[in-house]
Design brief:
Blueprint (H helix, E strand, L loop, with lengths): L1 H22 E4 L3 E7 L2 E2 L7 E4 L5 E7 L3 E11 L5 E12 L2 H6 L4 H19 L2 H6 L1 H16 L4 E12 L2 H43 L1 H16 L12 H10 L27
Antiparallel strand pairs: 1-4, 2-3, 2-5, 6-7, 7-8
């Protein structure tokens, strides 16, 4: 009798171990477990840790709740201003409702990928080339809204969408390069003209100031002569104004300076002697 009880107990323990082994499941921290009992979804979602299901009746499906980084394949399209471009992007999304992600869509990753490609082609057709190159933040927001609208019903939340690269044809690249070069040349000419305008105003002010002091003009001329004379390989031809001679004549002290109107001594001729006799 005791042996029969021991055998029954061993059989019951073995059956319990087998049942526990078949029913035991472990859900990781970043996962959630969705249970189907005879094909019907159970309302309770299993959290991380150890959990039990009914063997051969329940089926546990684990759903990853981490943020997924998915590259969007490059899409060829024509912009609104008729430029052929090739654009690729990257999308960040995560599952916020495990039950919806399992029930509402067959493969939520594939569905999000296809929706991202379609939305990217739509964005290319609605945008100009300048917007794709310089206004990407606004395009990223519009692309995120286009993908997030249907993804909400799948239990998926779109965190962020980024346009990575915009490839242009070689002819368009050369045209843009010429355009940028012309723009830089235009700016250089405007800056040069502005500098000439400012310089002319300063020169006009200097001319007005010198016109009140005639000696200032002569001093400026002498400064120019000094600056030109520093070059050893140049020949300087300097017109000497009469006004400067008069200025130097008035500034010379002593008897060597003759008063205006004074009689100058006669210059002896070739045949005259020093005493004035024949």
């Amino acid at each position: 009798m005791v042996e029969e009880l021991l055998a029954a107990g061993a059989a019951a323990a073995s059956a319990l171990v087998i049942y526990t082994t078949a029913a035991a499941r472990v859900v990781k921290q970043y996962e959630r477990g969705v249970v189907f009992r005879l094909g019907r979804l159970r309302p309770d979602v299993r959290g991380p840790g150890f959990t039990m299901i009914v063997p051969f009746v329940d089926r546990l499906r684990k759903v990853n709740m981490q943020i997924v980084t998915m590259p969007v394949p490059a899409q060829d399209g024509i912009t609104r201003d008729n430029v052929t471009v090739r654009v690729d992007a990257v999308i960040y999304f995560k599952v916020i409702d495990a039950s919806e992600a399992v029930v509402q869509v067959e493969d939520y990753r594939f569905a999000v990928s296809q929706m991202a490609q379609t939305s990217l082609r739509s964005i290319i057709g609605k945008s100009d080339l300048d917007d794709l190159l310089s206004n990407r933040e606004q395009l990223n927001q519009g692309l995120e809204l286009m993908i997030d609208s249907p993804a909400v019903g799948w239990g998926v939340q779109i965190d962020r969408v980024e346009i990575k690269d915009v490839s242009l044809p070689e002819t368009m690249k050369r045209s843009m390069s010429r355009q940028a070069e012309a723009e830089r040349e235009r700016r250089a000419r405007i800056i040069n003209a502005d500098a000439e305008l400012q310089a002319s105003r300063k020169l006009a002010e200097a001319a007005a100031e010198m016109s009140e002091q005639p000696a200032a003009l002569q001093l400026r001329l002498l400064q120019t002569v000094v600056a030109v004379a520093a070059e050893k390989n140049s020949t300087l031809v300097l017109p000497f104004p009469v006004e400067l001679l008069r200025f130097l004549e008035r500034a010379t002290p002593g008897d060597a300076v003759r008063q205006p109107g004074a009689e100058q001594p006669p210059i002896p001729g070739p045949g005259a002697s020093e005493s004035g006799q024949d």
